[in-house]
Amino acid sequence: MTTATPQKKVVVFDYGFGNVRSAERALARVGADVEITRDYDRAMNADGLLVPGVGAFSACMDGLRQARGEWIIDRRLSGGRPVMGICVGMQILFARGIEHGVETEGLDEWPGTVGPLKAPVVPHMGWNTVEAPAGSELFAGVDDDARFYFVHSYAVREWELEVTNPAMRAPQVTWATHGEPFVAAVENGALWATQFHPEKSGDAGAQLLTNWIETL
């Protein structure tokens, strides 16, 4: 496992719905200068912004809006400044979430719907492998059979974004399977996200965070 270059400033966005301390420890482990805050200016000016998420889609969106998180994410991405979402922090980047029949608008950075995972056992809790695309920066240096830690009952089962302009690079989508295939990670320019928890995924997760830090 490599260590990221020190001095990269990363803000873990604290909007009340994420394992911020676990994320802080994992990022510090790979050499980042980490701060937990919801301060607008600090979040805007950091080299990287990490958005965790735990709980219901609708509650996370409410918390994010109360902390002006949707503005921060949108403005950072408009300027090409890196953002990474984890677990529900990834799910809220899609257009909508449906839980218990209730539809909630997401940030709509990507089209698509977060819905109930159809599997014999739900939640999907524990270790699982993923299928990353060739040339993935996020999974660089990670063994093909590496396992990552998931805890979720909802997922994106269909990738809906179509890139028709040949001059534009299509997002790289990583898949996993639990009962059915679902989106496990996305790399899309300055916006990266994982459904699993890299901060709880041992050395493989640490390598992913290192890879992200090295792009900042």
From TrEMBL:
Predominant cellular place of this UniProt entry's protein: cytoplasm
Keyword Cytoplasm: yes
GO MF annotation terms: glutaminase activity; imidazoleglycerol-phosphate synthase activity; lyase activity
Pathway listed: Amino-acid biosynthesis; L-histidine biosynthesis; L-histidine from 5-phospho-alpha-D-ribose 1-diphosphate: step 5/9
Keywords attached to this entry: Amino-acid biosynthesis, Cytoplasm, Glutamine amidotransferase, Histidine biosynthesis, Hydrolase, Lyase
A Pfam family reported for this protein in Swiss-Prot or TrEMBL: GATase
Keyword Signal applies: no
GO annotation, cellular component aspect: cytoplasm
EC number assigned by the record: 4.3.2.10, 3.5.1.2
Residue ranges of every copy of the Glutamine amidotransferase domain listed in the record: 11-211
Catalytic activity: 5-[(5-phospho-1-deoxy-D-ribulos-1-ylimino)methylamino]-1-(5-phospho-beta-D-ribosyl)imidazole-4-carboxamide + L-glutamine = D-erythro-1-(imidazol-4-yl)glycerol 3-phosphate + 5-amino-1-(5-phospho-beta-D-ribosyl)imidazole-4-carboxamide + L-glutamate + H(+); L-glutamine + H2O = L-glutamate + NH4(+)
Alphabetized PROSITE patterns for the sequence: GATASE_TYPE_1 (PS51273)
Active site: C87, H197, E199
Chain coiled-coil ranges: none
GO biological process, any: L-histidine biosynthetic process
Compartments, record wording: Cytoplasm
PANTHER family registered for this protein in UniProt: IMIDAZOLE GLYCEROL PHOSPHATE SYNTHASE SUBUNIT HISH
Subunit-level organization: Heterodimer of HisH and HisF.
Function: IGPS catalyzes the conversion of PRFAR and glutamine to IGP, AICAR and glutamate. The HisH subunit catalyzes the hydrolysis of glutamine to glutamate and ammonia as part of the synthesis of IGP and AICAR. The resulting ammonia molecule is channeled to the active site of HisF.
UniProt protein name: Imidazole glycerol phosphate synthase subunit HisH
Organism of derivation: Streptomyces pristinaespiralis (strain ATCC 25486 / DSM 40338 / CBS 914.69 / JCM 4507 / KCC S-0507 / NBRC 13074 / NRRL 2958 / 5647)
